């Protein structure tokens, strides 16, 4: 065996299976909470050890997601304080990163699904398989024990090594680069559950589907999943270049939400204020007409893939087809959204919350990527010392269309 060290430079591969005592990590400390560009800093920390049913992965590349914009800001949740409240011995720092590709480097007791040397991609949900709700048959992703690795849990992928549970490991699509492989699982599996996880509202051939933020990470995945399932994806974006991105991914049509006739975004006016309400409806009806023009039919979307929340929920509820579903996984623009309940009950619509995905859904999405039905839509790759810069672009909505990745141990 070649000589071993206790710290390796990025990209300098230790002998397979040798776990150095220390590693580089781009991490957040509470004293740096604020703009992502300042919050992340490369430091050296101890390498975590895998416990029973845990896997240590040598990270080749990491994906960038919106959750670590929140982590950097320290709001709405102070992730370090939240962990230390539950466990005072928890680390005083946060290693984010909820997407990765890499090589299995060490396994804990009882791991049977992967072996040292396997090339894997990682999913981001962790749960306690012994939790009472899971033992009683609950979908693990709905368990009270469920946490997001690299956000609620420490030891995410912005580090040379990351620690996950064994069921988080999936086969790396052989044809993809490390960077592309790191970019799709979190958004792809989330979109998959939103679109395929809520029977009877799953995408069927011919179903029109409205996708907010079509050029974003989630949207780019959603367009391709809807198309692959035979549905009709119609995306909403805020610029010409983003419209083009959606068309290339297979969108049937695209709506530019900056159209000046759409004057109705945000909270609903009080229905008692007739003039304000009429003005709101005017903007919303202009959007509804645009939808019909793009679809070529007056049918509303059978599924609306939501995440902006506050600014768009009133529109989503209005335009959704009778007995259709608005399925939401975030509140990108705010959490206090208004729902005009009249449309919900009279037209028998469904407003469904959805959060990441279970193991079967991750595998189904991963198989679509392996089969070439979903492309990771990798837009840009950053170096390890640019984790903050990449999150800053997300924070200011100035990132390129598609998904972003960070090179960790992979070299250009
Ligand atoms: P991106 O930043 O890639 O995309 C977000 C998109 O939102 C942008 O492209 C932008 O598109 C759109 N947007 C911004 N402001 C508005 C607005 N006022 N009205 C309508 N659309 C707007 O993020 P992701 O796609 O990766 O994630 C989207 C959200 O989903 C985030 O909040 C993220 O945290 C959450 N999420 C939740 C998951 C879960 O499991 N619960 C998993 C994955 C993501 P444009 O300006 O072109 O309209």
Automatic annotation (TrEMBL):
SMART domains per UniProt: PKS_ER
UniProt GO MF annotations: oxidoreductase activity
Presence of the UniProt keyword Metal-binding in the record: no
Domain Enoyl reductase (ER) per the UniProt entry, residue ranges: 34-406
EC number(s) reported in the record: 1.3.1.85
Cell compartment(s), UniProt: Cytoplasm
Keyword tags: Acetylation, Cytoplasm, NADP, Oxidoreductase, RNA-binding
Signal peptide start and end residues: none
Keyword field contains Cytoplasm: yes
PANTHER family: QUINONE OXIDOREDUCTASE
Subunit structure: Homotetramer.
Name of this protein: Crotonyl-CoA carboxylase/reductase
Organism whose genome encodes this protein: Piscinibacter gummiphilus
Gene (name only): ccrA
């Amino acid at each position: 065996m070649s000589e071993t060290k206790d710290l390796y430079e990025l990209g300098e591969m230790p002998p397979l299976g040798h776990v150095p005592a220390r590693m580089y990590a781009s991490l957040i400390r509470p004293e740096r909470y604020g703009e992502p560009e300042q919050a992340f800093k490369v430091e050296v920390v101890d390498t975590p050890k895998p416990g029973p049913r845990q896997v240590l992965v040598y990270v080749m590349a990491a994906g960038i997601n919106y959750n670590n914009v929140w982590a950097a800001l320290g709001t709405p949740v102070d992730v370090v304080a939240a962990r230390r409240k539950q466990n005072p011995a928890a680390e005083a720092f946060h290693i984010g990163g909820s997407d990765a590709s890499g090589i299995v480097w060490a396994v804990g007791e009882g791991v049977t699904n992967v072996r040292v040397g396997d090339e894997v991609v990682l999913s981001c949900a962790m749960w306690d398989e012994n939790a009472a709700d899971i033992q009683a048959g609950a979908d693990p992703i709905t368990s009270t024990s469920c946490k997001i690795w690299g956000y609620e849990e420490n030891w995410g992928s912005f580090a040379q090594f990351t620690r996950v549970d064994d069921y988080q490991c999936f086969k790396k699509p052989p044809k993809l680069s490390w960077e592309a492989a790191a970019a799709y699982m979190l958004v792809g599996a989330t979109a998959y559950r939103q679109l395929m996880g809520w029977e009877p509202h799953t995408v069927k051939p011919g179903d029109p589907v409205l996708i907010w933020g079509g050029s974003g990470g989630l949207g780019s995945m959603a367009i391709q999943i809807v198309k692959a399932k035979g549905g009709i994806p119609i995306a909403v974006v805020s610029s010409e270049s983003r419209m083009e991105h959606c068309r290339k991914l297979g969108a049937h049509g695209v709506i530019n939400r900056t159209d000046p006739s759409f004057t109705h975004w945000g909270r609903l006016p009080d229905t008692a204020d007739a003039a304000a309400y009429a003005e709101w409806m005017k903007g919303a009806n202009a959007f509804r007409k645009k939808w019909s023009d793009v679809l070529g039919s007056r049918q509303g979307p059978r599924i609306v893939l939501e995440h902006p929340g506050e600014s768009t929920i009133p529109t989503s509820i209005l335009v959704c087809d009778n007995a259709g579903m608005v399925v939401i996984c975030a509140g990108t623009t705010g959490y206090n959204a208004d729902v005009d309940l009249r449309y919900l009950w009279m037209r028998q619509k469904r407003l469904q919350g959805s959060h990441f995905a279970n193991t079967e859904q991750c595998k189904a999405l991963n198989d679509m990527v392996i089969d070439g039905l979903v492309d990771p839509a990798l837009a840009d790759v950053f170096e390890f010392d640019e984790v903050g810069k990449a999150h800053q672009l997300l924070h200011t909505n100035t990132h390129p269309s598609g998904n972003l990745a960070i090179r960790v141990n992979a070299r250009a």
